[in-house]
Amino acid sequence: MPLKAIFIAAGLALCLTANVLGRPNVVGYYPNWVTMPSLNLSMYTHVNFAFAIPAAGGSFTYDNQEAMPAIVSSLQAAGTKAIVSIGGWTGSGLFSSILKTPSSRAALLANIVSYLKQYSLDGVDIDWEYPGRMGDTCNVVDSTNDTDNFLSFLRDLRTQLDMAFGSRSKLLSLAVRVEPFDGPNGPISDVSAFASVVDYINLMMYDIAGVWNPTTSANAPLQYAPGQGPRFSVGSAIDAWSNAGWPFGQMNLGIPFYGYAMTANTNMLQNPSNMYAPISSIAPQGDQDDRAVAVQCSGAPAAYSGEWQWKHLRDQGILATAGTAASPWVRTWDSTTSTPWLFNPSTNIFITYDDPQSIKLKVSFAASKGLAGTMVWGMEMDYSNELLDVLHDFPSSNTTSTSTITTPTATTLGPSGTTATGNPSTKPISTSTAPTSSSAPPTSAVTSTTSSSSSSAGGPVAGAACPATGSYQCADSTGKSPSYLLCLYGKWIAQSCGSGTACFQAGSSISCGWPQS
């Protein structure tokens, strides 16, 4: 759909985002409450210090602030932008009150400018979860005035940043949910005025699945399945913002380096082509870092989030390799959401997550739409750069074509509140074109195993004996068919890659990518 307006300011914004470093954006959130591993910070174009927490009078505090000068200096020496992020899930409670009160609003504006000067920062990220919509249950919400007040505040913030540092010399970004900001009647239809003063938005395209939903589903689906699970996806989120007037080139697609565990009420491997099953409303413990936490203000007992960081899926023995589950876990691929899922038949625990294969498809999709790049939550969750390396394969604009992926467009509003509760203290919480490749498909290998039960086309036959549960093979070797087979309890089960893609065999590994011409 054509954009509602084209702004000179949008062009200026692009000069400060993707083009300033000569490569697509890779924005990482750097949480100040975790012990960060040794990271190559130069692999990120922007690092957001998370989070500065606003107080009622317009001041804000950032924990572990004493470490900031050294980190900022090292980032900037490597050509990476250092940005302070204000708010977050549990830090958004007072935004509504602050911005409607002249004295606290003015104080927040002045304090942001002062903070950027004091720590030589390159910009500020505002993560308000959410204007006009309840996020954390502690938050103040004014559905009538929040979004208008936010726009007025951002306009004044841009003016003050330009006056203090020079026109467009400091970055202003926002972390946003899967639909535009809310007015009295739900998401507003025109966000172009916001885009004229903001350099880019970071689309928090995750936390779609969890125990707040009635069934298992995908945490960050590329597409959603009509009639199954929440009606949100990467495609619908990008469309929702672009249709409301936000330029593609001022968006970064949020990529989760984590997933969620849920307890299903049935053995889902009895029907591995269906990733949707009723679940318990209580999340099981996730990885070794998951702690039972009480939600402020609600009075509810402490509960686990079920969160599994990618690094712990790998180092706690859930995944034997990036694309292979360790027994008794079984890895399955959902072709509609283009995401993997894990299941343990001895406990009925289901895990939705992203891996190199699914992230590669998201990266290719974002590039085909002309997005500025990607955003990561969170930087500390990777394992040997297995996921981060995929973000650096963001295709340039000259690798896209007009072949299409069908993406259902949401026609109803999401649940009141948000698409997630999860582990709230730890997150900043379309029809499209698909890239083509002249050589290898744009995905990582997903598993290994070959079989002697083959068809004349070079692949296994559904129903034939197979060697090991959790193994995969393409149905044929043409590089044009989406069909592949999953080995489950000694027999091959027919499966399919995502719409418009094909299965490729490379030795003992397979991948789902764009068909060979």
UniProtKB/TrEMBL annotation:
Region (Disordered): 398-460
UniProt keyword Nucleus present: no
A Gene Ontology term for the protein's cellular component: extracellular region
Catalytic activity: Random endo-hydrolysis of N-acetyl-beta-D-glucosaminide (1->4)-beta-linkages in chitin and chitodextrins
Keyword check for Signal: yes
Signal peptide feature range: 1-22
InterPro entries cross-referenced by the UniProt entry: Chitinase_II/V-like_cat, Chitinase_insertion_sf, GH, Glyco_hydro18_cat, Glyco_hydro_18_chit_AS, Glycosyl_Hydrlase_18
Ranges of compositional bias, category Low complexity: 398-422, 430-460
Pfam families linked to this entry: Glyco_hydro_18
GO molecular-function terms, A-Z: chitin binding; endochitinase activity
Domain GH18: 24-398
Keywords: Carbohydrate metabolism, Chitin degradation, Glycosidase, Hydrolase, Polysaccharide degradation, Signal
One GO BP: chitin catabolic process
Cross-referenced SUPFAM superfamilies: (Trans)glycosidases (SSF51445), Chitinase insertion domain (SSF54556)
UniProt record similarity statement: Belongs to the glycosyl hydrolase 18 family.
Name of the protein this chain belongs to: GH18 domain-containing protein
The organism of origin for this protein: Coemansia thaxteri
